[in-house]
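Field: sequence (string)
Field: structure_tokens (string)

Example rows 1 and 2, in order.
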Amino acid sequence: MEWTGARYADIPTVEVSIGIDAPPERVWEVASDIETMPRTSPELRSVEWLDGRTGPRLGARFVGHNRHEAFGEWSTTSHLVEYEPPRVFAWAVEDIEHPSAVWRFTLTPQEDGGTLLHQWMQMGPGRSGLSYAIDRMPEKEQSIVFVRLREFETNIGRTLAAIKELAEGSPDRPSALSEKTPGKVGE
């Protein structure tokens, strides 16, 4: 990622893509399963559906428990704002109208039968934990945003690689991810 000079109010985004040798329906099974996500994410530790839900649908809510070396531990409530199987799965963090972040998976079928999986995220426009760091050091806002965007880019790459491994794995052959501790993919 190159220097953007973006500020938080610019609502910066990052997107990473990966080709997966599996049909969109199989990739969808993995990417839209929030209970699998802690195995694929360096920060996300656990998730649970809210309101008695056991699976996704538009408007469904889930809580995610996160940990980051610099930020500590925190939990957020997310709302599914796009749900179009097997194409788009997106959620807004905290307030739907003024989210602290928006995350989206987009799946594109490929001519060879595989899938191009994109993961995109947007910071803001609502306040997040990063806002507090910016409040303490406003003169460093652009650097703080840039470092976090680069970190998101790296973590998204790890998440996509883990989804690829799970989606391409044989159902009768355990994935290497099943041996890993949640949140420690790639370490």
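Row 2 begins here:
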Amino acid sequence: MKDAEAAMPNNIADLMYRNLLDVFNERDPARRALAVSEIYAEDVVWHEPDKDFQGREALADRAAQVQEEMTGWVFQPSGPVSVNHDIGHLAFHFGPADLPAAVTGMDIARCEDGVIVELYTFVNASGDAA
């Protein structure tokens, strides 16, 4: 591990898993808000395929909206996090908790000083491999 990465309070792999599990799977608004404050820069930018969101509050609001639209669905990692310098990549699948994935995709994040500063989400419409 590089010295700069060792000094970071959150390593990139942890940030990627927490982004998926502690924010997008978290149904409790208070716990989600705490996770958002710990893992994203205040001015984080999140790029979805058709829209961008800036700031922690906008990101948290959109995460809550996704949960409301897809009640009973969960995100799960589709393998380990890949890291290249300050960039993390995590493939995921998303669907009803006890059924095969309905959607696959990936998150790619640029991290600085132990937080995610920019997040890109790519989504596949079916359960095809990410």
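free_text_note (row 2): The first strand starts at residue 40 and ends at 48.
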